[in-house]
Amino acid sequence: MPSAFRYSVIPALSKVTLVTLLACATLAQAFSPVFAQNPGADDSSQPRVGDDNPKGDDDNQPRVGDDNPKGDDDNQPRVGDDNPKGDDDNQPRVGDDNPKGDDDNCLTDDCDRQNRSDFNDDSKSDILWRKDDGTLSVWFMNGTTLTSSSYLNPQKADPKWQVVGTGDFNSDRQTDILWQHKDGDLVTWLMNGTTLTRSISLSPKVTDKKWQVVGTGDFNSDRQTDILWQHQDGYLSVWYMNGTTLSNSKMLNPKLDDKKWRVAGTGDFNSDRKPDILWQHQDGYLSVWFMDGTNLISSSWLNPKQVADKKWQVVGTGDFNSDRQTDILWRKDDGYLSIWLMNGTNLVSSTSPSIDHVSDTTWKVVSSR
Ligand SMILES: [Ca+2]
Ligand SMILES: [Ca+2]
Ligand SMILES: [Ca+2]
Ligand SMILES: [Ca+2]
C-alpha cells in the first residue's frame, strides 16, 4: 500500500536546490514572456488538417454490443471476445504493426525510454509537476530519492494548456512534453533537458472532447513515441507518430465499456519491450493489459490487485530505479506520494519519496503515464 508521512514543500522548492532554483527562476523568467502565453505560440501559423477524430476515418465502424460481459472476472477490464476477427472489416488496417525482427535491434535505452519522463538522461524517471497556474517543475529522482528539482525553462505556460503526456518525439533521447489546449490543439515541446528548444503543433487538431490523451508509448516498435487516446464511450485508439507527424491511427482491440476503469498509465509490465496498459478501477483494483501493438494479448491483475484506499490514485508510470521494470507513482488526495517499485506486475517495494508530501494540491503530477 502506498504509505505517507512528514514534511511538505511545493515541488520546486526542495531545500536542496532552493538557491539553484532562485537562480534558475530568474533565468527562466527572462525567457518566459516568449512562451508563457501559449506553448504553440511560435508555431501558430502551422496548417491545421481538420480531421478531429483520433480514431481516423472509421466513424461508421460497427459497434460490438456487450463487450464487457459479466463473468467470473467482473472487476477486471477484460472484455472477452468483443472484437472477433472479421467483425470490423471496415476498420482501417495498418498491416503488421509489429513485424518480426523489427525490435531485435532495439537498443536497451531506445526501447525503454519511450515511457520515461527523464529530463536529465540518467535513465531514471523524473517527476514532472504542473501547478494550476501553469508553473512547471521537475523533480530529479534516483529511485525513490529526490536528488534535486528545477523549474522548466520557460517556467510557466498558459494554464489553458494541459500536459497530457511525455515522450521522445524527435528521437534525440530527450524527453519532450505533449500539450493539449482546451480547444483541442496539440503541441509538442521539444526539450533539451529542462529547456524548451522548439514547440511544434501536431496535426490534426482534435476538437471532439470525448477523446482524451491517456498515455504515450511506442506501440509499433519503430522507436517513435505514439499517442494513446481514450473516448469517453470506452474506445481506445493509438496515433502512430512519425516524430510529430501523425502517420496512421488504429483502434485498439478491444474497447472497454465499464467506465469504472480508467487508463492509469502505460509501460512494459512483461518485459517484451511492448507497451502495456495499466488500469485502475474506481474501487482500487489494478489490472494490466498486455498488448502486442494495438491488440490485447492477455490481462493480469497486479499483485496486490487492489488498493482499498480510494484516496490514492496512480498518477504516473516510469522506471525510477533504472532496472527496466515499469514502476508506479501514486498520489493521495492530501498530497502524499508513494512509489511502487515493480517486478513485472508484482510489487517489490512501496516507498515514499524522500520528500513525501506536496501539500499544495494545485501542483499536479503530469509525468508520463
Ligand atoms: Ca532522470
Ligand atoms: Ca511508434
Ligand atoms: Ca509489454
Ligand atoms: Ca523500475
UniProtKB/TrEMBL annotation:
First and last residue of the signal peptide: 1-36
Ranges of compositional bias, category Basic and acidic residues: 49-103, 110-126
Sequence segments annotated as region (Disordered): 36-126
InterPro entries in alphabetical order: FG-GAP, Integrin_alpha_N
Pfam families associated with the record: FG-GAP_3 (PF13517)
UniProt KW keywords: Signal
Stated name of the protein: Integrin
